[in-house]
Amino acid sequence: MLTREHRCGRSEEQEPELGLSPKKAGSGRWLRHGWKWKMEEPEEPADSGQSLPPVYIYSPEYVSICDSLAKVPKRASMVHSLIEAYALHKQMRIVKPKVASMEEMATFHTDAYLQHLQKVSQEGDDDHPDSIEYGLGYDCPATEGIFDYAAAVGGATITAAQCLIDGMCKVAINWSGGWHHAKKDEASGFCYLNDAVLGILRLRRKFDRILYVDLDLHHGDGVEDAFSFTSKVMTVSLHKFSPGFFPGTGDVSDVGLGKGRYYSVNVPIQDGIQDEKYYHICESVLKEVYIAFNPKAVVLQLGADTIAGDPMCSFNMTPVGIGKCLKYILQWQLATLILGGGGYNLANTARCWTYLTGVILGKTLSSEIPDHEALIRPGIRDTKTNKINPVPSEISSSNKGDGTMCSNPGQMRSIAEMFHQGFEWNLGGWSGVCRVKKRERHSRQRGQRLERTWCLMEPVRSLI
Fold first, then answer.
1. CATH at residue 171
2. CA-CA distances (angstroms) from residue 403 to 182, 216, 236, 257, 339?
3. What is the pTM of this model?
4. What share of the chain is helix, strand, coil (3-state, %, to 5)?
5. Per DSSP, which regions of 340-461 are E strands?
6. Are 160 and 171 in contact, with CB atoms under 8 Å apart?
7. Is residue 81 part of a domain?
8. Which cofactor does it need (predicted)?
9. Contact assessment for residue 261 and residue 224, using Cβ atoms and an 8 Å cutoff
10. Are 265 and 235 in contact (CB under 8 A)?
């Protein structure tokens, strides 16, 4: 009988061996039913009862510099003030962020890009002839001090990642991070530095397999591109996908390249989606990913531009819907780095991230926003409701659309089908592994869960 233990996120240095019958695929179990083997989903881990308080990355200086970003002015202050109003900061371990060094930023970004960003930042030169080459311009203006801002955000996310590495916490939060569009040598989409990539690279010092989950309205293209050739980092992005919508990437057929093929999962969604359907899609995809990839740590980007009332006018989500997705990931009890991202209705973004902070702490927040001196200024109390979690009808006329999962359903396969084709492809490429043939029986009715059977065939020689 064929013998081996395998995992989808294996180390390239350690090839699977032939031995006993298959035992594990990620955290799931292989169970024999006659001559067939079927995957059973993993049980939820037991709570050790020794939970550590989350780390909350904060300092007055950090909030002040994040407030300077022109696209979201004073947003960082508004978020922290609402967290403070609910006294949530007292239930977390506050860690002052450090500023990223040039060497730390250069673990991903090119020296040429960083040097140019530093130069134009010092001079406040938005018309430098080389800036267009580095993506500095319309949506990423080269304003004075922008390099210091980028270094602060990058350093904060690295600080949060290091807290997880050091075992200070199970969850670390940097709400002012999550700038997922920046490329290796280019600013993009209001993002000057890709702090999410820097955080993942830092976590890789300890954790073998990192799962990046992006719930922003926009495709997390910068993070996906950074890890598109590796099997050590898996990226999952749920996002709006339609002609002309930035960044124009993230089709379901975009699955990674080389050794990273099928380690990128994209879930394109149309306008109008609401909490229930969004959570169903998110849970279905992440369940498959968790079983197959068996991540050791998670980086979660929670951009709030999906919330109804955002100027992007796309999704009809509420903080409760995003909170359910967050709870699903937290029940894995893995080291988890929480980042912010988009969110251009500043009041709703503050509401959302404060609500999610409560979810992380396991606290049910009072619906009515408490009094706080920082909330008197224009912002949260200027909106139609003073609730922490208003329904879409209270904060915006509903965005039109039905939230279909794929923008061209007739041309796209289901996410689960695409993912398991990749799973089979990786199995077939391992040294000393059997060939696997997949059988599927499923209803064509939308939303019906696929039932899969994996059939073991004869062993084959190394294919690598």
1. 3.40.800.20
2. 27, 15, 18, 29, 24
3. 0.78
4. 35, 15, 50
5. 434-441, 451-459
6. no
7. yes
8. a divalent metal cation
9. no
10. yes
